[in-house]
C-alpha cells in the first residue's frame, strides 16, 4: 500500500510546529548539511544548503519558506523550480510594534492552515490545537529544565532533535549525560544564524579552547523557542474549546507565543533582541560573545560591530562560508579569544 | 534646436558659453557643469559624456544641486522627510503638504561614484562594520555620519519586509546611531489563492485584497506621522491633489520614455534618461521644478524625433537594461559598444506607473506600493520585463548586478532564463561597482559580445 507522506519541512523558527501537527501532519525543522559544491557568488551558504537539502528529502509532503530574510524569500523560487512538491512562502512581518503586524502574522497562520488542510484533509479544532500546544510546551520545558545536566552541545542537539521530529520526540528523547565539571571553563554566548549539521562541532571546539556555551543564541538554539504557554490558561483554553464554552482563541495564543516573543535581529526595530541578550548575559554570567554568521548574511553581519560595542564584552566574529566549520582555524581563534577573556 | 551630439565634459565649457550667448534661459541653480567639479568635488563628471542640449544641462544642474535645495527648504522652515526604500510612495504623500519636502537618502549610493570615493562615505560605512560585501547603498550611512550631503531629516521612514536585507540592515544600523526611524511593513506580494478576492495592480501584477488593505493600514500610520510633522492634516482631498501632481510627472516621463525608446534614431542618451527616470521617485527635492525639468527634456526629445535626428546611429542595438548602475559611466559604455537603451527596469517600475485617481487616495497609494517589482517574485518581475522589452522592441537584455545586494544573488538567473526562453533574446549579466575604471575592459568585452550576438541574430 502506498504510504502518503505527512512530513512538512521548514527551517524558520517562526513557523509554529504545533499548527502543522494540529493538521495531522509532521512538522520537521531540518538542519541541513553544508553543500559540497558551495553556494554561487552572493548566495547565503545556509540558504543554498537548505535548498539542496529539501531536494534530498524525498519523503517531504511540502516545504515552508518564510520572508524572515530576503535570501530565503527569493531562493524559495529557485527551490520551487527544482521540485514538484508544494512550496508555501509565509509572510513573517519584520515590524512588530503595531497591531497590524501581529494581525498579518496571524492571518498568515490561517493561510498556512488552509494550505495544510489541503494536504491532510484535516481542519483542526481549537481543542486539537491546544492539546498539541500543551504537549509541545511541556516537552520544551523538559528540554530547558535539562540544560544544567547536559553539555552545551547535547542541549543544542536535543532542541534540534525536537524541532526535527517533535511528533516522536518523547520516544526518541536522548538520555542526558552528566556534563562534568564546568568550573574551569569560561561561560560564553554563542549567537548567530542557524547551524548546519557539521557546525555543532563548534560547541566542542569552544570547550577545547577553555569555554562553554552558557547561552545558545543561534537560530537553532534556545533563543528561538516560543514563549512558554501558561499551563493554566492552556488547560482552560483546551477545556473551553472541547466543551465549546467560549470563543477563546488558541491560534491567537500560539501566534503571540511565536511572533510576540522570539527575539531576532531581522525585526524592525531589533531592540527586543538586545533586551533579551542583555537579560541573558546577566542571568548566565556571560564573559564573552561569539557571533557566528554566514557569508552574505547582511542581517547578522550588519549588527556585529554594534553588538560588540554595546555589550562591552570580549567579542569574536566567526564567518561561516562554504567551507564548513574549519576546525583548526576556528579552534586557533577560539583559543586566542579565551585568552582575551581571561586578561 | 542645436544639433544633437554627445559631448565630453571639457566640450561642455565652450558649449555652455555658446548656449548662453545664444540666449539660453537658466534657472537659479543653472550654470556651467564645471562648477560641480570645482566647487562640489564631483570629479566623476570629468569622465562622463553628455547630451549637449540646454534641457540636459538643466537636468544635470537640477540633480547636482539637491543638497542646496534641501538646506534652503530647511532655512525656509519647511520640514524634511527622509523616505527610505519605498521608491515613490511616501514622497507622494509628503509632497501633498506645502510645508514638507521629501528626499531619498538612499540616493547617497551615487555619491561614491560622482565624487570618485573622495567623500569617504564607503570608508565610514566600513569603519562601522558595513563593508564592501554590502550593496553600495551603504554610502548612505556615511552620509548620515558626515551630515555633509544632506541635512538630517525631521522624519525618517523606511519600508521593510519584502525588501533587500542589505538595505534593511543598514537602516537598522542607522537607527542604532540615534536616527529614529518610522518603519512600515511592505509584505511579500503573493498571487491570490483560488477564490480569494484580488486586485490587478498598476503595471499588471495581481495581489489579494487583504494585502492591499494591510498596506493601506501601514500607509495610514505614515499619514498620521506626516500630518503631525506638518502640523496640518493630510486629508484625502489634499492627498488626491498630491496624487494628481505626481501623475503629471509620471505622464511626462512616460511619454519621454516611449519617445526615446521607440524612436528610429535614439534622441537622448542613456545617462540622461536614467537620471530623468530617477526624478519620478522623489523629484530631487522639488516636485514642481522636477516637472519643469522633465517638460524641457520632453520638448527637446519631441523636436529631435520630429526632425528625425538623434545622438546615436540608427543601427545601435536596442538594449533593455535591468537594475540601476552604481557607476554612471556604464551607461556611456553601452553606447560606446554600439548599444542604446530601449526599455529599463531600474527597480522602480511602479514609480513610473500612474496612480489611480478614481479610487480613495490611500487605496490608490497602497496599490502602487504593492506594485513594486521588488516586493514580488523574481518571476513576476521577469514577466514585466518581458512585456516591456517586447513593447519597446528590445534586441538584447543586460542585467546589471548590484554588488552585495541580496536580491541580485538569485534573481538575475531567474530573469535571464525567462527572457531567453520566452523572447529568445541574448542576455548578459554584469556587475557594476561604484567605480568601474579597472573593470572597463571586462565590461566592454561582455557588452560587445552581447551587441554582436544581437546583430548576428538580426542578420
And the CATH topology of the largest domain in chain A? Rossmann fold
Query: Which strand-content bin applies to the residues of chain A?
Result: 5-15%
Number of helices of chain A: 13
Rg over CA atoms of chain A: 20 Å
The class by helix and strand makeup of chain A works out as alpha/beta
How many independent structural domains of chain A? 2
Mean pLDDT of chain B: 96
Order of helices and strands of chain B: EHHEHHEHEHHHEHEEEHHHHEHEHHEHEH
Major beta sheet summary of chain A: 4 strands, parallel
Shape assignment of chain A: globular
Give helix % range of chain A. Answer: 40-55%
Major sheet summary line of chain B: 4 strands, parallel
Overall structural class of chain B, as computed from helix and strand content, comes to alpha/beta
Order of helices and strands of chain A: EHEHEHEHHHHEHEHHHEHEH
Distance separating the two termini of chain B: 35 Å
The most extensive interface, with participating residues per chain, is:
A-B, 44 and 48 residues
Oligomer: heterodimer
Q: In whole angstroms, how far apart are the ends of chain A?
A: 66 Å
> Per DSSP, what share of the residues of chain B sits in E-state strands of 2 or more residues?
5-15%
Helix count of chain B equals: 18
Keywords:
heterodimer, A: 343 residues, alpha/beta, Rossmann fold, 2 domains, 8 strands, B: alpha/beta, four-stranded parallel β-sheet, globular
Q: Can you tell me about this structure?
A:
The complex is a heterodimer of chains A (343) and B (459). Chain A is 48% helix and 14% strand. In chain A, helix 4 crosses helix 10, helix 5 runs antiparallel to helix 6 and helix 8 packs across helix 13. Chain A folds into two domains: 118 residues, Rossmann fold; 125 residues, Rossmann fold (3-Layer(aba) Sandwich). Chain A contains 13 helices and eight strands. In chain A, the strands form two sheets. Chain A has a four-stranded parallel sheet, sandwiched between helices. A four-stranded parallel sheet of chain A has the order 6-5-7-8, sandwiched between helices. By secondary structure, chain A is of the alpha/beta class. By secondary structure, chain B is of the alpha/beta class. Chain B is globular and about 50 Å long. The mean pLDDT of chain B is 96.
